[in-house]
Amino acid sequence: MAKMIPAQEAAKIYHTNYVRNARAMGVLWALFTLCFAVIMMVTFIQPYWIGDSIDTPQAGYFGLYSYCIGNALTGELICKGSPLDFGTIPSSAFKSAMFFVGISTFLIIGCILCFSMFFFCNAATVYKVCAWMQLAAATGLAIGCMLYPDGWDSPEVKRMCGEKTDKYTLGVCTVRWAYILCIIGILDALILSFLAFVLGNRQDNLLPSDFQIDNKEGLE
Predict the structure, then answer these.
(1) Of 4, 76, 138, 144, which cross-links 97 as Cys (Cβ 3.0–4.6 Å)?
(2) How far apart are CA 68 and CA 172, in angstroms?
(3) What is the structure's pLDDT at 152?
(4) Of 206, 209, 219, nearest in space to 20 by CA
(5) Percent of the chain at pLDDT exceeding 90
């Protein structure tokens, strides 16, 4: 049996570590994608994008499609809005923002469904498909976050936040955690997309050419 030369041993060790690291990164990417999907669903559902403060005439809060405003006499919160009934959404800008954030959420969920493709498709292809989906999700989130303040001039928002409220001017109301979380989600989606592209390229060439040993040299 021919004795393995040191260069071949080094290449074999490098290849083993390279594959192990790529798999570890893939597992982390999948876990972060799952967590991100949960965050996106919470952000889409929860009506805490903007809300009252100590200076607002009435208590309440607004989400992408639902909102609650306190009754001036009883102080009881009256809630309205449904994603299936556009007529209950107080602003066309809110409707557009809901559409883009909703599409982004479905893209992330679709990316998770693509995990099953690892069992019967090329891993590099799956990573790159997910990367493009996550990049599209980041774009949708960015558009949704930019469109949402355009609806702050609606009568319902002014009723809670005061007459000084206008497009991109929130008056005496405050930005709540769901809106901030959605903005952070843009960066999260971009990072996950970049990582998926890197993993896809690694799968295309698990062993760099610099470490490949010519078989002829190994027989000499």
Answers:
(1) 144
(2) 17
(3) 94
(4) 206
(5) 55
